[in-house]
Amino acid sequence: MENYDIVVIGGGPAGMAAAVAAREMGIENILLIERDRELGGILQQCIHNGFGLRHFEEDLTGPEFSERYIQRIEELDIPSKLDTMVLNVTENREVVLVNAREGLKAVKAGAIVLAMGCRERARGAINIPGSRPAGVFTAGTAQRLINIEGYMVGKKIMMLGTGDIGLIMARRLTLEGSKVIAVLARKPYPGGLMRNVVQCLYDYDIPLMLQHTVVKILGKDRVRGVLVARTDENSLPIPGTEELYECDTLILSVGLIPENELSLSAGIELDRRTGGPIVNESRETRVPGIFACGNVVHVHDLVDFVVEESEMAGKGAARFVQRSFVQRPVECDDASIALLPGRGLKYVVPQLVNAANVEDRLDLFLRVNRVYGPSYIEVKDGRESIKKVKRPRMNPGEMERVRISRSNIETIKGSNLIVEATEVEG
Amino acid sequence: MSKINREIICIVCPTGCRIHVSGDNPQALSITGNECKRGEEYALKEITDPRRTLITTVQLNHGRLRRLPVRTNVEIPKRSLFPCMEIINRTEVEAPVEVGQVIISDILGTGADIVATRSMTRA
Amino acid sequence: MRTARVADRVGSFFAWGGGRSCSREKTKKVFDVAVIGAGIVGTLIARELSRYRLEVALLDRSNDVANGSTKANSGIIHAGYDAVPGSNKAKFNVLGNPLFDELCDHLDVRFNRIGSLVVAFSERERTAVEQLYERGKTNGVEGLRIIERKELQALEPNLDDTAVCALHAPQAGIIDPWEIAIAAAENAAENGVKLFLNFPVEDIDRRADSYRIIGRDDEIGAHCVINCAGVFADRIHGMVAPPSYEITPRKGQYFVLDKSAGDLVNHVIFQCPTEAGKGVLVTRSVHGNLLVGPDSQVIDDKENLSTTRERLDFVRRNAAKISKEIPFNEVIRSFSGLRATPSTKDFVIEESKEARGFIDVAGIESPGLTAAPAIAHYVRDLLIKIRGGLEEKKEFNPLRRRVIRFMELPDERKNELIRKDPRFGRIICRCEHITEGEIVDAIHRRVGASTVDGVKKRVRPGMGRCQGGFCEPQVLKILARELDKSVTEIVKNERDSYILTGSTKCSEIGRQIHGEL
């Protein structure tokens, strides 16, 4: 059986950044596995700009950002298997893969980094009633068809979902000559960044209809229209408010789900709140030697944060192989501090911290569960506040980062830290 | 120029400050609500000469893929977006291509080049 | 590669889909038998008849076989205790059930006798269970047992606490109804049956010794006609004879849950039946998904296949009686199907008295799927009577060429296969791990896939949790390549179900935006 020090599953920005970080730590024998024909992952179809503002301090498109890492992978001579699917990962770090050239084979890894990304929530999962015609697409699939394959998906488009991917696609479709009738949001606020609402909707006079949703799809063989209803304070459709909009296409951007089939096959414990593995400060999962980073852990908004997180995972995997961890959290469970999402928080990553392994600071990534005006995020050790940061506004669509210095971590007495959001009065 | 009184959402960074621009005289406008200087510059530009980056694909022949993603290397006037799309849509590129390669130089006299945002080998 | 035919209009649009006849020349041939309707009943009858020296035509209005009720039902092979004793339903159910082992082996179709439980959720319901037990015995069903609470809980730990007893029928099983219909059609075609798709029957002309069957674009002649037209059977009957029954469409809506929910139950779980029918059931499917449904709703429109919020909510509430543990957050899709409910309340399988040589096989609602193989034998016997005998074909081959199910092969076989054909090393559907080789095979078999849904029905890409999000662009390209068409010509299901409207860079941009103050 072929043996590698580190096997990285997924060759998008997460996998590439982890592989680079591991090589820079001195690990020689790395393998990067990617199921598509080339590296780059989802970035290859995200042809818009806005990537790398933090990481490279440049305004790059997805492919440009991806190309930087592809070049680095080549410079560092990190081997990759393309067009290769991983079928199984075991707890003792065997990876079963298959491709046309080599067939089915198993390889053994000193450590594994899971970087499989996420998938889109489909129409069936949100149960939009009606007929089941052609012409219903998720935004990412439409993006792939348009940007990579070069085909148009429709002429008159209704879009449901105002996450960034939906907003970006509204603009893309318009530029390529389709008419986007409207973009609908169940909630009273858009899911994506305001700058995207401006650049993608306002710029093109595309109506943004907040508190609306699609309640029925019409059309026998191809979409011929949708029924749109207003939603109430619980984001549920209000009966009697249905209006018919004629269109030939419905595009959905209604959520992303971390793709953890392989994680489950390896017996990795997932966090219900993120949909991804429970990880510690080094991004190690609860199975020793298996690390995870990127959208497979929690859905990110900025690739810059993906890369930061993936570097942690790559370094962590390297340390595992080099046996240079100060303290192995999975074996010393009592030494780990749990990070719990408290009031106002949907989730916090990492979920566990082994203080001895934190170098100069610990970054917490979190999402709030509703819109917040001026507020603060607090990290509490029992009654004591060990970190408090102000925010002018927060919403579930924008991931927040809170930094805790090493010195603050050393003062922690309890075994839990609770992270809360509080709105400022007045 | 007539009196200006507009609210603009800044798109320079993810914060998205709501910036208020008002005044009679373009040389002496009141700009408030921005958290940084870049926002002030953006708001002024948005009122006088709004510009955007154009992102699209162009037909690629003999490449591994049918389409090549491209961008303007600098921002172009908003009103040039669709006219530039028409030029780009009539353009064909031959593989291989290098990232950063100029596909169309100084498109429609805007001073912006259309450049490839990825490399692509021949099929 | 041919140049694309680009769609230029929203709305009615003619897309090249099934690739079948669109010629002006009418088929001159007069067949011995024409089977109208390529659902489970029509395909099994056609296959049965292909054993004999007969020229058989199999017609369907749709762009693929198994696109009607056969595509959208519970997929259950019933034990036979439910049907009224003495009825055709009872007779053919009990005759049909044991035939599935050999049939599925010959056709290489997955079938699993997991058994069924009709559960009483109160002592009051116990009488219903006992009645079904007695009825089952009268109908000749073997192995029935009434099991009590303790054993029931051991067999089905996720069943609601209120369950007191159940009728256990070990004969019941699960199957993919469209898989067996497609397999039967393929085997029938291999044995000489001529398939005519996109052939909606618009009229039938009764002549001296034959029928002229008039479709939209073509016509054929046949000495005998077998009417397996599902919800439209009464309409077809009315073309040759005065009405003797009416078919009312009865819609049923379902949820399909992710495979992670598949082991919630180990048997097909029924509630006690009411007048409306067998009620909402919960079962695993033969692929490991969980199926919840159907409701029962009489409708007017024979083409109305919409799901509705109200009825899906009803299914969800009603299913909770069976188990509170059903993980509805794991739903990957919902669908609806129509039952062909006959006014006679029983299967109509007989030669028409007014129209000699015209055989109705109508009103085949539940337990129609189970009954289908037995119905096929009976119809053959009817034909023997009509024709005075049938000559067997020595060259008839009952075996369908084995389907390669890559993930089910042992590893050495997988590697052998990839060495011979590297397309088996390329996984296209990541949810179900389906390879390019399997998709290509499904396209090139007789009665092969020519649409995205056709590929889905035969080899499953699109049935998984991503519902085609990842694989559909790939499936489109593979179909285009294998069928020598442009990607924009590939459709989802029927010929008008276009997916792509053209290439980018081809449309005109009519709008300008203004950057003025």
Short structural description:
The complex is a heterotrimer of chains A (426), B (123) and C (517). Helices cover 21% and strands 34% of the residues of chain A.
Kindly name the structural category of chain A. alpha/beta
Q: What is the number of helices of chain A?
A: 9
CATH hierarchy: architecture of the largest domain in chain A: 3-Layer(bba) Sandwich
What count of domains describes the coordinates of chain A?
Answer: 3
Count of helix runs of chain C: 13
**Strand fraction of chain A:** 25-35%
Examine the coordinates and then state which fold CATH places here, giving the name of the CATH topology of the largest domain in chain A. FAD/NAD(P)-binding domain
Low-pLDDT residue spans of chain C: 1-23, 508-517
For the biggest sheet of chain A, the summary is: 7 strands, mixed
Mean pLDDT figure of chain C? 92
Overview of the structural elements:
- The complex is a heterotrimer of chains A (426), B (123) and C (517).
- By secondary structure, chain A is of the alpha/beta class.
- Chain A has helices at 13-24, 62-75, 123-126, 139-149, 164-175, 194-201, 261-265, 303-322, 406-410, and strands at residues 2-9, 30-33, 49-51, 60-61, 80-81, 85-89, 94-99, 103-114, 118-120, 136-138, 151-152, 156-160, 179-185, 208-210, 212-218, 225-230, 243-246, 249-252, 256-258, 290-292, 336-341, 345-349, 352-354, 361-368, 375-381, 384-391, 400-405, 416-423.
- The longest helix of chain A is centred in the C-terminal third of the chain and has 20 residues, at 303-322.
- Chain B folds into two domains: 4-49, no CATH class; 55-116, CPE0013-like (CPE0013-like fold), CATH 3.10.530.
- Chain B has helices at 37-48, 81-89, and strands spanning 4-9, 18-23, 30-32, 51-52, 55-61, 67-72, 76-77, 92-94, 102-104, 114-116.
- Chain B starts with a strand and ends in a 7-residue tail after the last strand.
- Chain C is 27% helix and 20% strand.
- In chain C, strands 1, 2, 9, 10, 11, 12, 19 and 20 form an eight-stranded mixed beta sheet that branches. In chain C, strands 13, 15, 16, 17 and 18 form a five-stranded antiparallel beta sheet that branches. In chain C, strands 6-7-5-14 form a four-stranded mixed beta sheet.
- Residues 1-23 and 508-517 of chain C have low confidence and may be disordered.
- Chains in contact: A-B, A-C, B-C.
- Chains A and C meet through α3, α4 and β11 of A and β18, α10, α13 and β23 of C.
- β11 of chain A pairs antiparallel with β23 of chain C.
